[in-house]
Amino acid sequence: MATELARIPFDGRQIDIEFAWLRAERTERPLLVFLHEGLGSVSMWRDYPRQLCEAGDLRGLVLSRYGYGQSTPRPHDEKWGVDFMHRQAREALPALFDVLEIGAGRRHGVPWLFGHSDGGSIALICAASAPAMVAGLIVLAPHIVVEEVSVRSIAATRDLYRQTDLRARLARHHADVDSAFWGWNDIWLDPAFRAWDLRPLLADLRCPVLAVQGEDDEYGTMAQIEGIHRYAPHAALLKLARCGHSPHRDQPERLTEAAVAFISTHT
């Protein structure tokens, strides 16, 4: 899909964020903002955002976070802190919404957030921290705590990046693939990150939430979405058989059906 760049203030400087609109002419329909996983980008969603928006007659906004895709790369000597997802949710995303006129009383209205993995965690933080910014959430394989299975799989991914063609395959999706990979990998494998925990925030969720997890997810267990429901009992859960960490790739039809029904119910 064709993308543009939006310039936003972040961390004391101006950075560019890659984005693409889907079905922007459907101004009366809900807007779904797609937030990618730890190694994702606009292009790594492939065609799923368009398929979902067409199935639900929705508008879409797909973006690459700072350090990913064609957005401003992370300088190689810049180390992300344990709060990197909180900063994306509380600083970078609101700044982008300001530039693109998204929000209450603005051109594009209050959006739904559709987040995968780290993007799902960012969506949860955003909705809990600023309830007026978000109409609803659909989160795929979100993280609310750091599990041992996540750390093992991320360490294994580091080995693949060093020893296989994974780097070359990811390079097709990022202006600076080492910036994208090591920014994510280094902080997730930092011992300090073991204390990262979203559970204290979850009781502040007010919007509709659909949390989705694959039964074969190699990066997390059902404890992640069950934890969301424990602290936010109104959250609906979808557990998918024969599905790994990426429900939109492993079970796209089932996910689309559930997402469209959920948005329709709460719109």
TrEMBL record:
Its EC number is 4.2.99.20. It comes from the Bacteria. Residues 32-257 form the AB hydrolase-1 domain. Gene3D superfamilies: alpha/beta hydrolase. Pfam families: Abhydrolase_6. Keywords: Lyase. One of its GO terms (molecular function) is 2-succinyl-6-hydroxy-2,4-cyclohexadiene-1-carboxylate synthase activity. This is 2-succinyl-6-hydroxy-2, 4-cyclohexadiene-1-carboxylate synthase. It comes from Cupriavidus pampae.
